[in-house]
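Most newcomers find our protein records easier to grasp once they have seen one. A learned vocabulary of local backbone shapes supplies the integers on the structure line. An example says more than a description, so a record of this kind follows:
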Amino acid sequence: EANYLYIETPHATALTLFAAGRHVLIRDCTDWPGMPNPGVRVAIRPRWENEVLIRLWKEFACSRS
């Protein structure tokens, strides 16, 4: 039992680097054994921190368009 979400995304490494540049830690799980697809692991945090993560993810998505 843990408070993490695994999210499959082909942009795991780029997202992790983008987040780190904004002082947000996201775990890149691309090379983890047993994981069939690249993805990231994020912690479930207090609401305000989750909202920061959502804004960051939207900013990342818009920057790739």
